[in-house]
Amino acid sequence: MARTALTREEVLEAAAALVKQHGPDALTMRRLAAELGTAVTSIYWHVGNRESLLDALVERTVADLSAITPRGRTPAARIVSVARALRRDLRARPHLVAMVHERGLTERMFLPAQRALAHEVHAAGLRGARAAEAVRAVQVQVVGHVLVERNRERAPVQSPGEVELWRSETTDPPDPALSRALAAPVDPERLFTTSVRALVDGLLRIPDGSRAEPGDETPAAPHDGIPD
Questions:
Q1: In sequence order, what are the residues at sequence separation of 6 or more whose Cβ sits closer than 8 angstroms to the Cβ of residue 199?
Q2: pLDDT tens profile 127-170
Q3: CATH code given to domain 8-64
Q4: What is the residue extent of each domain of the chain?
Q5: Global pTM?
């Protein structure tokens, strides 16, 4: 028996789940109707045709990525929290993010995160071009890291891989602890957090010998207060 009570949000949620799991090509009106236990005409009633549905999913994805809330006691901590949240959101929605990009809305998708970062670098004392450079550097760090992670995940299995190569090292290493650490599996979240913290520390520090504009000088950002 066809389901009668159905909302637009339920249709979009089911459609987003299909795209997340199988990609945009798997999203057909018949398959979506089957997932929801309803008639195809009901899907059309709530969201229009397939192109209208895809447009709605793109808008929904853009809205979801605008809900990043900075956390932490210092500007540095809050910048890192924004970067980590953005990375998690991008990794959780690869197919949907690709759809946003294909429709030419990438810059709009990143605007809320940019605004949050701009607010925090301003709170840290950066102004003008230096503030803009800091915002863009953090954004590039996030996007670049996500792309590298996805490429590594999709690459053919390496044999031997990095872990096996370091474990099989027979020469006496100058730093055994380093060799053991490199032989351990990589924690992508920890690696990302380490790299973005180092980047933020550098961005918020005035280089020796440089001349800062009024209100632009910022001490090295402490790590305390950065949520893990």
A1: 137, 138, 141
A2: 999 999 999 999 999 999 999 998 887 767 766 666 666 666 65
A3: 1.10.10.60
A4: 8-64, 75-155+186-203
A5: 0.75
Q: 94-102 and 75-92 helices cross at what angle (nearest 10)?
A: 90
As a three-state string, the secondary structure of the chain is CCCCCCCHHHHHHHHHHHHHHHCHHHCCHHHHHHHHCCCHHHHHHHHCCHHHHHHHHHHHHHHHCCCCCCCCCCHHHHHHHHHHHHHHHHHHCHHHHHHHHHCCCHHHHHHHHHHHHHHHHHHCCCCHHHHHHHHHHHHHHHHHHHHHHHHHHHCCCCCCCHHHHHHCCCCCCCCHHHHHHHHCCCCHHHHHHHHHHHHHHHHCCCCCCCCCCCCCCCCCCCCCCCCC
Tens-place pLDDT, residues 48-82? 898 899 889 888 888 888 788 999 999 999 999 99
